[in-house]
Amino acid sequence: MKTPVEEIKDDFLIQNDVRLFLKRDDLIHPEMSGNKFRKLKYNLVRARQEDHDTLLTFGGAYSNHIYAVAAAGALQGFNTIGIIRGEEYNPLNPTLEFAASRGMKLHYISRKDYKQKNDISFLKDLEETYGRFYLIPEGGSNAEALRGCGEMISELDPEMDVIALSCGTGGTMAGVLAGLDGNKYVIGFPALKHGYFLKKDISDMIRSFYDRIYLNWHLETGYHFGGYARYSMELVHFINEFKRNSGIPLDPVYTGKMMFGLFDLIKKGAFGRGKKILAIHTGGLQGIKGFNERFGNLIG
After folding, report:
1. Which of 61, 202, 214, 229 has its CA 20 to 30 A from that of 192?
2. 34, 289 contact by CB (below 8 A)
3. What is the distance of C-alpha 10 from the center of its chain?
4. Which class is 5-31+143-295 in CATH?
């Protein structure tokens, strides 16, 4: 599904002689928005081909991925199981409440046990408990996900100089890089600390699934604001001002940090004058409700 691209109009951009465009993947689907739709697309196809009726995946209590898998299962007729990191929520937060409303079974495990999510013996134990299932990894990042994200490249303007996107597990970044196949330049903005680990993960995914090495990218690791779901009032103010000026909402975990980083880099002259930058809005807006519930109604 092709999504629109909107140019961001701002005096700041005019002053710095930079044109900034935003690919509105947040509009791709009301419940499976952004990169989650693209990541799940071919996973659902494969699950159907292998005659599965149940999807099982992993995520935190506020995970966009958990939200999207629950939605996909309800829409496509799959049973869904979410293995949730941490203590049980009672009452459920907005993300888990939605997942449960779409029929997802929620299974809570300790943070220590969660680290075993890729162990064969641990997965066998889950299969003994729940029966046969199609496994979608945390964040949805596997070969099918990269294929779906890579399709986005056919929708992009070839005249763009730089492509920017936020990063969680790195699957979307890896898929975009594979789709570009060495063309253009891509900047990723990790939402978590220790982005150097993510650099290896992205490189390993590309090497594993495509047997390629690409050098046309880097990660900007200075805009995570303390890590996943961490924030500052400066970030909150930026997100609210961006929406007031453009009419486009950003989430405080991923796209808000990416856009804040882009504006800061433009101010520092990192791109040079006359450049055309395309940022990808990877969705995640469902997380605003949970963020506001936890920290007060900060995001308008």
Report:
1. 214
2. no
3. 26
4. alpha beta
Claim: this prediction has a pTM higher than 0.70:
yes
Q: Which of 34, 36, 44, 94 is nearest to 65 (CA)?
A: 36
Cβ atoms 68, 35 nearer than 8 A: no
Q: What is the pLDDT of residues 162-177, one digit of tens each?
A: 999 999 999 999 999 9
- pLDDT tens digits, 69-94: 999 999 999 999 999 999 999 899 99
The residues with which 113 forms a beta bridge, in sequence order, are none
Distance (Å, rounded) from C-alpha 147 to C-alpha 150? Answer: 5
Residue 283 corresponds to which tokens in the numbers above? 């969705």
**Ramachandran class of 234: left when φ > 0, alpha when ψ lies in -120 to 50, beta otherwise:** alpha
Report the pLDDT value the prediction gives residue 196, as an integer from 0 to 100.
75
Q: Domain 35-140 adopts which CATH fold?
A: Rossmann fold (3.40.50)
For residue 200, CA distances in Å to 53, 175, 203, 211 come to: 34, 15, 5, 14
pLDDT of 112? 94
Burial of residue 24 (number of CB atoms within 10 Å: 0-12, 13-18, 19+)? middle
Residue with the two structure tokens 């399709």: 151
Do 5-31+143-295 and 35-140 come out as alike in CATH topology?
yes
**Which stretches of the chain drop beneath a pLDDT of 50?**
none
The domain locations on the chain are 5-31+143-295, 35-140
- Residue of 288, 294, 283, 284 lying closest to 89 (CA atoms): 294
- What's the pLDDT at 286? 94
Q: DSSP for 29-63, please give it.
A: -SSS-THHHHHHHHHHHHHHHTT--EEEEEE-TT-
